[in-house]
Amino acid sequence: MRIMPASRLFFLLWSFLLAHAAAAQGWTPQRHVELIAPNAPGGAMDSTARIVQRLWQEMKLLPVSSAVVNRSGGEHALAYTYLSQRSGDPHYLSLASPVLLGNHLAGRLAVTYTDLTPIETIMTEAYVVVVRADSPLSFFHMASAVLASPAGSPFSHLARVSPKNPL
């Protein structure tokens, strides 16, 4: 007996739920569905999009054709701008990450989370910055730099972070 890897099972379930959630809302795609990957082929979000799209096909979850389209550039700006230009058209979906919010806060992207509607969370990841244990850098050095940053700087919100109050 062959056991399905957990990651494949996860994407299988997600694809199934996404397709059925759309059907439950009374909507069925009438033409080609485009799943936008906001990075270049081979990146993490591209790989995720390709797994989802392949499962759509293999399980016949969509009655129409579908494809992954890479819109890389500008730290996801091209992808999110492209999607926002297709107002009211549910045949365009995109994977999104916290870069959407970060780029807006940094002034690099006019589109923000309020311009798009999240329909499903497929994974969560927390990223941290690490250094070797013997590095002269430490949490104390980073916290001191953040506390010294002027109010309103992109890093001023990190002043709340501490080992007892992590991100």
Describe the protein.
The chain is mainly α and 167 residues long. The chain folds into 2 domains: 104 residues, no CATH class; 42 residues, no CATH class. 35% of the residues lie in helices and 8% in strands. It contains 5 helices and 3 strands. Strands 2-1-3 form a 3-stranded parallel β-sheet, sandwiched between helices. Helix 1 packs across helix 2. The radius of gyration is 20 Å and the shape is elongated.
Task: Record keyword descriptors for this entry.
167 residues, mainly alpha, three-stranded parallel sheet, 5 helices, 35% helix, 8% strand, disordered C terminus
Topology, pairings included?
Elements: H1 6-24, E1 33-37, H2 44-58, E2 66-70, H3 77-84, E3 92-94, H4 99-105, H5 139-148
Parallel strand pairs: 1-2, 1-3
Helix pairs in contact: 1-2
The average pLDDT is 76
Gyration radius, rounded: 20 Å
User: Helical amount among residues, as a percent range?
Assistant: 25-40%
Q: Spans with pLDDT under 50 lasting ≥5 residues?
A: 155-167
Q: Which overall shape is indicated by the principal axes computed on the Cα atoms?
A: elongated
Distance between the termini: 42 Å
Question: Would you kindly provide a brief summary of this structure?
Answer:
The protein has 167 residues and is mostly helical.
